[in-house]
């Protein structure tokens, strides 16, 4: 019978000490990227699995859930985490949260850490970029996993999202109805979420036969909204930002140009963060129920952990327009 590989075998093949492998298994970030790569290759080649992985992932008894987010400073993602945590905590689970800073390679490092900490399941808001190493890890360990907010094509796992296309489309409908005839759309990171929102905008430009519009590409951050506004070839009737953080950056950039929102230009966002109604001017935006997204992700993951059959793989929550002070009616 073939001998089961040990941590000693991994250390020998990787050319490192046993303590280095042990540190890596506890927290991959505790060793250099170069050493981590050698250890990963040795583990893969040997087929090494610590006992707690081989046993814990089958029995699901750690009562720990891993949550991967692309940006832990973004309040939207933290609200999603809160929704999932509130539901799962009542079921006796604790959370480990890892932020990738929008880097695909960090998704792999964090997921490896979750695996070696024997989590029962994982909720992921991914970077949105193709990551073969991530897919390989998920398939190798048969992880119980749910994607939230951003899709990941090619991985057979449930997805919780919102009607991004419809949200932006209805916002354009409202702006056209209130007399706006020229537009700028500021697009965030080109994830599935950003693409769906952009498609909603372009669909309405085509529907209303509007030719006077600009599309600029950036990130879902305050700084990006600010910088993209500086790059506009001309100021339109309305600027539609990919999310609320970008919209706040837009408003600040317009102020520096001596323009007043909404008197000179209307500005809208997407998210309806808790402070959007307190901003000056209060922000007209598309509301998505971030807390409910997290809660639904928690419910679906709990069902997977409990061995229940999932009736559907995709859950799309509705969005709604919230009208506040950052839009002004424009009539000839």
UniProtKB/TrEMBL annotation:
HTH lacI-type domain residues: 5-59
Molecular-function annotations in GO: DNA-binding transcription factor activity; transcription cis-regulatory region binding
BP-aspect Gene Ontology terms: regulation of DNA-templated transcription
PROSITE patterns: HTH_LACI_1, HTH_LACI_2
SUPFAM superfamilies in alphabetical order: lambda repressor-like DNA-binding domains (SSF47413), Periplasmic binding protein-like I (SSF53822)
UniProt KW keywords: DNA-binding, Transcription, Transcription regulation
Alphabetical list of PANTHER family matching this protein: LACI-RELATED TRANSCRIPTIONAL REPRESSOR, XYLOSE OPERON REGULATORY PROTEIN
Record-given protein name: Transcriptional regulator, LacI family
């Amino acid at each position: 019978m073939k001998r089961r590989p040990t941590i000693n075998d991994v250390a020998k093949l990787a050319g490192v000490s046993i303590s280095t492998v042990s540190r890596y298994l506890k927290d991959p970030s505790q060793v250099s990227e170069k050493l981590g790569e050698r250890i990963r290759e040795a583990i893969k080649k040997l087929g090494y699995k610590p006992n707690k992985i081989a046993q814990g992932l089958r029995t699901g008894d750690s009562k720990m859930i891993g949550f991967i987010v692309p940006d832990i400073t973004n309040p939207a993602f933290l609200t999603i985490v809160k929704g999932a945590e509130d539901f799962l905590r009542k079921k006796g689970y604790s959370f480990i949260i890892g932020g990738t800073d929008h880097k695909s390679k960090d998704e792999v490092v964090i997921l490896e850490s979750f695996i070696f900490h024997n989590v029962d399941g994982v909720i992921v808001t991914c970077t949105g970029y193709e990551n073969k190493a991530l897919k390989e890890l998920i398939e190798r360990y048969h992880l119980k996993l749910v994607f939230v907010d951003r899709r990941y094509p090619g991985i057979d796992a449930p997805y919780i999202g919102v009607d991004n296309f419809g949200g932006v489309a209805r916002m354009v409908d409202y702006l056209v109805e209130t007399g706006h005839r020229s537009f700028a759309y500021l697009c965030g990171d080109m994830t599935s979420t950003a693409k769906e929102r952009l498609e909603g905008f372009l669909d309405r430009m085509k529907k209303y036969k509007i030719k006077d519009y600009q599309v600029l590409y950036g990130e879902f951050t305050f700084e990006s909204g600010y910088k993209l506004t500086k790059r506009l070839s001309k100021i339109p009737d309305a600027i539609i930002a990919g999310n609320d953080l970008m919209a706040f950056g837009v408003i600040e950039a317009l102020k520096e140009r001596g323009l007043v929102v909404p008197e000179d230009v209307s500005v809208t966002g997407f998210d309806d963060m808790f402070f959007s109604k307190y901003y000056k001017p209060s922000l007209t935006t598309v509301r998505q129920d971030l807390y409910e997204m997290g809660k639904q992700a928690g419910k679906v993951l709990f069902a997977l952990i409990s061995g229940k059959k999932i009736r559907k793989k995709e859950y799309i929550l509705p969005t709604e327009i919230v009208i506040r002070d950052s839009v002004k009616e424009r009539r000839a």
